[in-house]
Predict the 3D structure of the following.
Amino acid sequence: MRCFQTKPMQPCSRSESATLVLDIGKTNVKLVVVSKMGFIADILKTENRSLDKPPYLQLDTEGIWDWLMNSVSSLAREHNIDAIVTSTHGCAAGLVDDKGLVLPPLDYEAEPPASIAAAFEAVTPPFAQTQTPHLPQGQNLGRQLFWQQREFADAFALARWVLTYPQYWAWRLSGVAASEITSIGCHSHLWSPRKPGNTGHGRFSQLVQDMGWEKLFPPIRSAFDELGPITSNVANCTGLSRRCKVYSGIHDSNAAYSLYLRGHDRPFSLVSTGTWVMMFSPRKDLSTLDEKRDTMAIANLMGESLPTARFMGGREFELLTEDLDSKAFTDEDLASVIRKQSFLLPSYTEGGPFPKSKGTGSGPQLKKPGEVVAQATLYLALVTRTSMAMMESDGDLLIDGGLVNNLWYCRLLATLLGHERCYMNHETEGTAVGAGMLPEWTNPAISSPLKLTPVEKCVYPGLNKYVDTWQQMAQACNPDDLPICRT
């Protein structure tokens, strides 16, 4: 694994205690040292690569573990780390016995056999119960478990626990098995999250009961619960104190969202960007979610339903701007794309609000690199706009994650979505900061260290015409009714 280090943003002294966040995304794995006040002190990163080998496309847990042990050793010499929290992408779980994996975690881009997909669809609960749509590949964790149980029955029978991915790493670090709501309730078909105002956390879905899986899930712990200290083996390998505590951990999108639960005092809708563009509209009527167009409800930190839309925007942007500097375009490049009426039409990955259409271009072909990147930025803003309109987003519009570095994307969203206030959070490691705040979640004296910057709207001649034309062409490619979008 190739590793690189970024410059610390706000170093803390060796005497100050800090939290180490293991942040496993689909593209990168990061170790982020977060101070108790939520500031980043250090970051190490490596590429995250899956292994295409029997029995299926799988996550490289041993590669990550080896990198983790070596990297923590160097961080432990520089920082007083007394807590570890893991945040990971969703749709992954390890099946373990008391010694280790009996079946490796599937990569959610693995394609199950057609017979498995059809059989699974026949036994899944209705959308109204789980608020989970049928997603492509292995993007429903329930489908992964169904596949493993059907195709690898002998190994599946050896499992003592099903550990969702953040909790798998917490178990390896502490030896304590736990389940956690944001991970189980991440478009999995496994969970029925509670509606706002109801009591309790929610419950396992009928699918879990029918398949006999409930006994495989350890007791549910909150993301901010302390599981115990690191194991003696981890302490010996890393040089961390044996008193270093491991916390249950959290799904990465919810880690980013939790920052605003603690740090923003007005109603908001959030666009959180990375490999996926995740959009959260907390006041959306659950009965109006469209399961065919990648809208759903996941479970938030408290177990409440959190209306969500998504598309693989970061991956699409990489595909569309391959070998180009993604920041190297100007205001004039954007104006030129609009003037030329050159379009990118969805979709370049599976799923999203246009699941039936395949990505294509329309209008003059662009050759100037700046215009190519500007065109991709317009495309991402328009797909985001479509999903946010479907979600009836309201309140303040907040934007965070990697695409915040693309100011034009943020300004286009502020213009096209029409929220009265729009802010961007320049902390591109918001997932890690949100996860790093979990050990202090119940401490009322600690608040989220948000530094939001207002986003100005933009004015381009011909933008409204460009948007209307794009919408009409996108609708023709994907004939389902599209929402009326605000301009």
User: Anything to note?
Assistant: Confidence is low (pLDDT under 50) at residues 1-8. The longest strand covers residues 80-88. The radius of gyration is 22 Å.
